[in-house]
């Protein structure tokens, strides 16, 4: 009985960790996209400045 209870706790910890990892990777992906957009905008501004 005690062992299966322990097993359930371990499983729920792994589930928690997996959902946290998904959250972290999603957050990281958004950060990367945000930075890419900033770099892209900066690049576009530089090109416009050269064109003027």
Structural commentary:
With 52 residues, the chain is mostly helical. The chain has a domain at 21-52. The chain has one helix at 2-51. The longest helix is centred in the middle third of the chain and has 50 residues, at 2-51. The mean pLDDT is 86.
Observed structural traits:
96% helix; mainly alpha; 52 residues; 1 helix
Short recap of the structure:
The protein has one helix at 2-51. It is mainly alpha-helical and 52 residues long. It has a domain at 21-52.
Query: How many runs of DSSP E, i.e. beta strands?
Result: 0
Major sheet details: none
Tell me, briefly, the overall form: rod-shaped
Strand content: under 5%
Number of helix segments? Answer: 1
- What's the N-to-C terminus distance? 77 Å
Mean pLDDT: 86
Rounded Rg:
22 Å
Q: What is the N-to-C order of secondary-structure elements (H for helix, E for strand)?
A: H
Q: How much helix, percentage-wise, in residues?
A: over 70%
Low-confidence stretches: none
Structural class call reads: mainly alpha
Blueprint (SSEs and pairs):
Elements lengths: L1 H50 L1
């Amino acid at each position: 009985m005690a062992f299966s209870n322990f097993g359930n706790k371990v499983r729920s910890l792994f589930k928690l960790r997996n959902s946290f990892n998904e959250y972290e990777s999603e957050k990281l992906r958004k950060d990367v996209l945000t930075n890419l957009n900033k770099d892209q905008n900066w690049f576009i501004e530089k090109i416009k400045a050269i064109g003027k």
